[in-house]
Amino acid sequence: MERLAALTREQSVWAWSRGAIKSPWSRRKRKQALSCQNWSRLFSVNGKFRDGGRKFLKKVRSGGIEPGIRAEVWPFLLGVYDLNSSEEERNIIKTKKRNEYEKLRRKCHQILNCQKGFGLKVINEINNEGCSRGVPYLQDVSASVSVSAKVFNCSGSEANSPDNAACGAAECMDDDTSELTCVDPSMAESESSGSASSDEDDHGQISVCADIEENCAPEHKFVRSTSSKSDFFRSNKTPEDFATWQRIIRLDAIRANTDWALFSCNQDEISEEKALQRALSVGLKDYDHLEPYMIYHAARLVALLEAYALYDPEIGYCQGMSDLLSPIIAVMKEDHEAFWCFVGFMKKARHNFRLDEVGIRRQLKTVSQIIKHKDSHLYRHLQKLQAEDCFFVYRMVLVLFRRELTFEQTLCLWEVMWADQAAVRAGIGRSTWGRIRLHAPPTDDLLLYAIAACVLQRRRLIIERYSSMDEILRECHSMAGQLDVWRLLDDAHDLVVNLHNKI
To answer: Is the pLDDT of residue 121 over 90?
Structure first.
């Protein structure tokens, strides 16, 4: 009887992998995406969602969003705007956020204008009020952790030095690129780079304190904050840290994937003059081989990523973050809107870039547990290969399927994932979805269920043909462009239905 029961379970698992066991989304083609017409009907006269955003989130979860309205919709999914906000409230928030990012961009320029990095000694003061406003800062840091000590690349490996982290490309850079770049001060006021500062100067603002050398112009000197508040979080970041981030950001920006270009909202509007001016404003070099729109895109990447490094110095910049920002820049025309969407995205994704790898390890463990509960045979095979830690999906976790999916597929997956996370934030639970086709409750970890589903779809191949983790890793990397994103989401939601109470 035990052998019969085991055989039955094995057949059940095999049937699931072949699609015989149907999810609540089974045999479902992608539903119609949220259209401009549908979008406008969701709001009342004062610009509020009629039902607190429930219908909106259901629509996005089932079909995604039409490209033409993504820039308008994403701020709701990423928490820039509250689902219960009115149009008037959103206009106030938009103005406030624009001012905040412009302040931080000015700080970036001040730092850049201090020759050879002498102006930046410590990026160190973020007060407790900044944290209460949603700034992802900093837990009590008793010892400085140098960003230059450990940088991860998108293949899942790690480098022990900044040069290694940049995949050796830093060797091609001029010597002066390792130092803080000097920029024409006149560019600071005209640039509209998407960046974030904190609130007003006395409300959670990043204070850059410096021992100013003689060759840093007086108008660019920084003064240590004289705030009497004692509840400051401290982050001991050095000029070398920021210079390292600068160097790697520029390398990654120049090498950015070009598949976004087909979907860019303003590609045809970028003249060569405009592109070169934008590149100059952020000290971008070595772009002669790029078309104007790519130069402009790279310069936007530099501006936003530099600003984020100041906004969140605990994370700073690690390779892979440009992969997450690039699609947002392609969709969002305004830099300040793109930046705050990126900040919303990074509230969860930032844990992927922690130097202690706690966030990555937790997610890999969750993927492992999903596979273990769904397919014990496959899990035992992974144990035999010493691959049960699921390190072979490291890249999928790190950059959220960005390398395995096409640009449009990536946006579809992310939008459904963001809708799940927005529903969780809003406290919208299982009962809301119970009477519709989407029986899967919203989860913060939909990405991990999708990754597990991706592995389970290849269970037979893995069990019968692969005898090492390296072979499985190569299989995962070869998936690029071969995945059906909506089938993947079907299977992921099936796993959520069956396992969310067990994981």
So the answer is: no
